């Protein structure tokens, strides 16, 4: 048995002459000595080279996109784009849901609040761990008490009950707040193309056009506060948009509604569903 195995191995390593001859003259043109072991080794090396070449082409060229059922680079790019669009749609749906919930609470006469996007605030978190000092307690007593430094609601806004409000427009007051005659805001004479700014941060819950008041925009603010801006020539925000204090929401015009007295803007302020005089909170 050992002799048989040795004979087979010897034949496997025995080289044979392989030559090429001229078909017309029979003269030998080329020859080589090869054994079966050389042929097997060459075949294995060729397969390894082909395997490495195919893997390289698939990994570093767009050829992977042509392989059926395999997610290539193009497919991965499309999946990333679709995930981003889905995330944006989810965010928009959340804003619209908050808008409708706040609108429903307004119709029911309930207080509303602008939903803030959660974001970490290490400074605020760490502030609760800092002990008060004597000077801080003295200053707090002066501000919260009845002294000359106490905070009170003034014409410029702010105070203990309501946050600081930004004047939407600058101009001359032509008609004051008077609910008895149906005027629920303050009318201000303004220049053409003057920017109209949001007095506080909030969410736009109505932006539309009316024949008698031109472009109008209503913004819901924290604390169940609603501000309205009437007689605009152009709006820069749409229903559902979030705005920040002092952000431009529209522009005035000298002929917003086509009337002769249309060169003005009207600002209304509603707190807990009741109209209030804007001049008690703002300086125009």
Task: Provide keyphrases for this structure.
Glucose Permease (Domain IIA), 5 helices, 31% helix, 12 strands, single chain, elongated, alpha+beta, ten-stranded antiparallel beta sheet, two-stranded antiparallel sheet, 284 residues
Protein described:
With 284 residues, the protein is of the alpha+beta class. It folds into 3 domains: 2-60, no CATH class; 72-110; 172-280, Glucose Permease (Domain IIA). It is built from 5 helices and 12 strands. The chain has helices at 2-13, 36-60, 73-107, 122-127, 134-144, and strands at residues 16-21, 28-34, 172-175, 185-189, 195-197, 202-210, 214-221, 225-235, 242-243, 248-252, 264-271, 274-276. Strands 3, 4, 5, 6, 7, 8, 9, 10, 11 and 12 form a 10-stranded antiparallel sheet that branches. A two-stranded antiparallel ribbon has the order 1-2. A hairpin with a 3-residue loop joins strand 7 and strand 8 (225-235). The radius of gyration is 40 Å and the shape is elongated. It starts with a helix and ends in an 8-residue tail after the last strand. The model is unreliable at 117-128 and 152-160 (pLDDT under 50).
Order of helices and strands: HEEHHHHEEEEEEEEEE
Note the main sheet: 10 strands, antiparallel
How many domain regions? 3
Quaternary state reads: single chain
At the fourth CATH level, what is the homologous superfamily of the largest domain?
Glucose Permease (Domain IIA)
- The third-level CATH topology of the largest domain is Glucose Permease (Domain IIA)
Number of contiguous helices: 5
Helix content: 25-40%
Structural class estimated from helices and strands: alpha+beta
Number of strands: 12
**Over all CA atoms, what is the radius of gyration?**
40 Å
- Which regions are unreliable across 5 or more consecutive residues at pLDDT < 50? 117-128, 152-160
Beta-strand residue percentage: 25-35%
